[in-house]
Amino acid sequence: MFQHEAPDEDGGEDDDDEDEVVGRQKKAGRRKIKIEFIQDKSRRHITFSKRKAGIMKKAYELSTLTGTQVLLLVVSETGLVYTFTTAKLQPLVTQPEGKNLIQACLNAPN
What we know:
SRF-like, protein dimerization activity, cis-regulatory region sequence-specific DNA binding, three-stranded mixed beta sheet, transcription, 38% helix, 3 helices, DNA-binding transcription factor activity, RNA polymerase II-specific, single chain, SRF-like_MADS-box
């Protein structure tokens, strides 16, 4: 149920979309998207995967650059829990007490 992920070497993000000027030509830049629920399940899954990788990379960078302790939980539509933790917080997602606490929070009514 719990899956701990370390960011890829490049963080899993595709930086090819950034604005670049090559000679006199300008490549297409990042497009602004509306922040609204994605109805298409396939597109939603792809977006989830890419954004999850991005936020995992940001959590890693935050802990590395500032020396802070970070615990990130991301729960998918299907209920899978993905985590990023620094060493001191690792027991919260690996020991039964921590897992039970997380599960209780996820099962709590809104």
